[in-house]
């Protein structure tokens, strides 16, 4: 207990603790000033009104002046919002506490009968101990000066050394105030340490929560990708012409996006778009998809519906709505001659433009039952010929960079 009584700092968080003490004291003093300043003005007016003796009027006037100066300094410090860093804030705190001590001593040391009543003692102790959150060395200085003041500069000083009870009263008052103020300080240390530990725990829990969310997101992404790849495999069994096509389109689209400097998020979306861009073909009759003869205009219109079907399917998933929009427009053309909406140029989403070029390149260079694959050189010539007409110029240029690396 003795060791605790003279403890100034917690064993942990010493570097930040002193600033916390200063800030706590400063905020307490701000409240004190808001109370003491109007009270002191009232006391001064009353002293003048009742024609009190000159020393009382002077003391009240001095009190008003000091409190006004402290209040003005406080307003200036308040604007900086960092009271712990200001020497003036410390001065305001210690002077304000000194004023409280003076009032407590005045209340205990002066009365007509020169006797301290129990109520005076209780009020005095609490006035002297009022939220003294500070070092014990500072308190010893405060209470040492207070004891000197009570014993020598108040009615206690009259025959004090010949009257033992009268000598013990101010000593007990100061000691009681010291103990209470130290208890307040130790409670402050305990609350501070508990708060710091809770902050550390909160940081750890927040970090763990973020890691857990990231793991869940990765797991969800992996599950989604697995489901998408499964659907693509189903589509490939449904349409023999698309086997390997979706993976190829996805790979080309990502490479084009990288050349164009797209973000990681956009590249991830494009990768998924490449895999599912033909997913709507699942709803097209299988005999129509695998027909080797030339399609009639009506049959071509049915097959063209696959981008709309894919859009409708993907819109059912909350996290695939952007991808659904990209898939919807991957058969538009730069000159407006595509489908389903006949968009042109920058009306077409950038990701859809990339998908359009990647899809066309793989279709040109892949073997089909109904057509032979073009050589890379012939396909390049075709892409460049249609650049600015069917295909976006910037996307074609990016594809050429991919193919030439």
Give structural notes.
This protein is mainly α and 405 residues long. It folds into 2 domains: 11-194, no CATH class; 239-404, Hypothetical protein af1432. It contains 16 helices and no strands. It has helices at 2-5, 14-49, 54-80, 87-109, 118-129, 136-152, 164-238, 245-259, 264-276, 286-289, 297-304, 306-315, 321-328, 350-365, 376-385, 393-404. Helix 2 (14-49) crosses helix 4 and helix 4 (87-109) packs parallel to helix 6. It is rod-shaped. The two termini are 78 Å apart.
SSE order and pairing:
Blueprint: H1 2-5, H2 14-49, H3 54-80, H4 87-109, H5 118-129, H6 136-152, H7 164-238, H8 245-259, H9 264-276, H10 286-289, H11 297-304, H12 306-315, H13 321-328, H14 350-365, H15 376-385, H16 393-404
The SS-based structural class is mainly alpha
Number of strands: 0
Q: Quick one: overall form?
A: rod-shaped
Main β-sheet description: none
Order of helices and strands: HHHHHHHHHHHHHHHH
N- and C-termini, Cα separation: 78 Å
**If you compute it from the alpha carbons, what radius of gyration comes out, rounded to the nearest whole angstrom?**
42 Å
**Helical fraction:** over 70%
> What is the percentage of strand-forming residues?
under 5%
Work out the count of structural domains: 2
Mean pLDDT: 78
Report the uncertain regions.
none
* Total number of helices: 16
